[in-house]
Amino acid sequence: MLAHSSANTLIDLDSLSIWNNKRVLGASIFSDVTGFTGYIDSAKTDDEKKKALKVLHIIRKEMATVLKCDFNGLRIQFQGDRVQGLFHLPKNEEQDIAVEAVRAAVGLQSSMEHTVKAAMPDAKNLQLAVGIDLDTTLVSNLGARAHRDRICLGESVENAAANEERCSGGQIGISERIYKVLPQAAALYCIKMICSRSPGTSETRHTRIVAEATNTTIAASPIDSKAEHIKEVARQKIDSTI
I need a surface site. Which of 131, 160, 165, 202 has the fewest CB within 10 A? Predict the structure, then answer.
């Protein structure tokens, strides 16, 4: 059994190992760029492919910045054009953690629509689909030195990923647990519920969709425009291995 402890402050992911894991009440969040596969497939020339790679780099960097800097979260890992994050503070405060995760999801959508697209017109047809769930999560950093992978283990991690996959571009899908602990004013923005059956089981999963994801008042404060910063990053040479 892996040894673990709780976390009173934001987890230092680089300090984790097989001998040092954190077990927290956390909200897992996944954000995926919808339409990106088609966008890549439409790139025929080398210049178009380089431009598509630059767009991916910018979107991924911006998603990580929103999670870590605009909100009090962790960027766990990139999975192609998808980013995985975690919110676990304040410790064991279910409602506060849920609200921060939903605010971050709104922030991701807002940044994509109002900042990334303003700075990178080539991203105009791309959108984000975001999924969230909340439960006890084991956080670690496993693998050989210099080749470690940040990981989160727990049912809510899988559920958050599934919620994202059920969403269309521009939507945020939250679990019933997230929905039930949100303040009433925020919960009113959840306008639709998607029900689906888990593969190989009789369990029915429920995903609620947050209305008007880029503008909803769940986000207590607007995302500051970072268009100039994104333009500067876009000017940098993008390594083709990113």
Answer: 202
pTM reported for the whole predicted model: 0.81
pLDDT tens digits, the chain, 242 residues: what are they?
455 677 889 999 999 988 999 999 999 999 999 988 888 888 889 888 888 888 999 999 999 999 999 999 999 999 989 999 999 999 999 999 999 999 899 899 989 988 899 888 888 999 999 999 999 999 999 987 767 899 999 999 999 999 999 888 988 888 889 988 888 766 555 544 444 444 455 555 566 666 544 433 333 333 344 555 444 544 443 343 33
Which of 224, 212, 232, 240 is CA-nearest to residue 111? Answer: 224
Integer Cα distance of 15 and 1 in angstroms: 19
Rounded to whole angstroms, the Cα distance separating 105 from 114 reads 14
